[in-house]
Amino acid sequence: MTILAAFATILHSIIFLYTWVIIISALLTFVQPNPHNPVVQILYRLTAPVYRFVRRYIPTIFGGIDLAPLFIVLFLQFIDLAFILPMAAKYQY
């Protein structure tokens, strides 16, 4: 495995984990968890800056539902499938 393939594999893992953080954070908004819970605070700190960035440039609220998590997950999957995984496959032995 080359260094570039290893780097691509690490990026793929980070995108995979962050996608799940976004999904869990979005699902938690339906149950209104305790905001003082440490897990909820960590999820908020990991997702709030990205949500804010997306909401600044794209109107994400349609019919009272915030679609920012959907846009972020779609973007992350596009980056992963279009750039990261082909790079990992190209530089594998």
What is the overall silhouette? elongated
Number of separate strands:
2
Global Rg: 16 Å
Helix-strand string: HHEEH
Task: Quote the distance from N terminus to C terminus.
Answer: 6 Å
* Largest sheet geometry: 2 strands, antiparallel
The assigned structural class equals mainly alpha
Tally of domains: 1
Please report which band the strand proportion falls in: under 5%, 5-15%, 15-25%, 25-35%, 35-45% or over 45%. under 5%
Mean pLDDT figure: 93
Helix count equals: 3
Largest beta sheet: strand ordering: 1-2
Helix content: over 70%
Low-confidence blocks of residues: none
Commentary on this structure:
Helix 2 (38-57) packs across helix 3 (68-90). It is built from three helices and two strands, in the order H-H-E-E-H. The protein starts with a helix and ends with a helix. It has a two-stranded antiparallel ribbon. It has one domain. The chain has 93 residues and is mainly alpha-helical. 74% of the residues lie in helices and 4% in strands.
Task: Note the main attributes of this structure.
93 residues; two-stranded antiparallel ribbon; mainly alpha
In short:
The protein is mainly alpha-helical and 93 residues long. The chain has three helices and two strands.
